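Data availability (excerpt). All sequences and predicted token strings are deposited with the supplementary files. A representative entry, Methyltransferase-like protein 4, is shown inline so that the format can be inspected without opening the archive.
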Amino acid sequence: MRDKQTTTSPVLIIATSLVSGLSHLSLIIGKYLANDDDGFFISHQMFISKLYDTILNKTENTVPLYEHFFHINNPFVRDNQQVETSTENNLKRKRKRPKYEEDDTSKKIKTFISNLKSQDIFSTSPRFLDNNICARHASIKFYENTSELKTFFGQNPNPNLHIANGYVFPPKSQFYCDNVFNMKNLKDEKYDIILLDPPWTNKYIKRKKKIKRDEGYTMMVDQDLAQLPINEFLTSNGLVCVWCTNSQNHIDTLKSVLFPKWNIKYVACWYWIKVTKCGEFICNFAPQTGKQPYERIIFGRKIDSDTKIKNPEENKLIASVPSSVHSHKPPLSEILVPYLPPTPKCLELFARYLLPNWTSYGLEALKFQHQFLYENSDIEHCNHKSNI
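Structure token line:
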């Protein structure tokens, strides 16, 4: 068994440099090597496994619940649909969709994923045409066994994992289970980076909330986000990183309203590409207003920051197999190292899980810290074996 102190910042990152159609891959575990790469592949599942490996009891035929989240074998379709590929079935669709025209972003993303495929990054095992039933059932089980927590604060200042009251706490982590509008509780703290995953208004979540209240989050309008005192808690060279939908309204509001309100200037936009275990996009590319197989990560820096500090480059790409649990984003902590000081103070708002050396703030900050997530769990219709 590996010593717990070696697991303070684990993540699998495959850094990809695309030059003249060729890709050069570096496999890095627990450390990020900065260069001129165009993008990364992150294994979110491996990140979790490495972080919590000292409490896992994995066997060949059983896996912990969290691992089922990443059994994404096929592109996503609605529960009442089947995966249809025949021309005959496609012609039966009643709704006429706008014509899709490939743009520079989608071309770059397709080339990026194609290069990853050529390097055997993805699974080559026969895929299950099961509409991701295992991952979807795991997500349902997760929501059935979690609920909103009461307001409280805490930390694990030690270099080891800590288990208490049915929760698992990563080393050197701090949390505030509280509404982000109460972030004045942070008092005079200043952070080198503030990462946000805001609950943007979303038609899909509105529909989901009507059907299953526990699976939809409480959305927030843009005017409320503008009231967050981001500027007060940033250092003079502070970096802001915001997960953003592909809604042009949200993108424009973030750049022209929220950033100026927070005393932030726009720096760059990255793309998180969601793929299956075999490297397929989780959905087709669509016209501008349609659902895309990617989300955006938009960066800003304090307006009066030091111009010598390195900023995130424009249009970098991150690929990963997504979790079946809504808004369970992959960790960015290692990737962002080159844009931060040597020992940065890091804050995440609207957080849903804890990270080593980070402060996590939000009503669901401990959502993915339940101990049962890291215990062996059988999921009906699951044909996967553990990746020991």
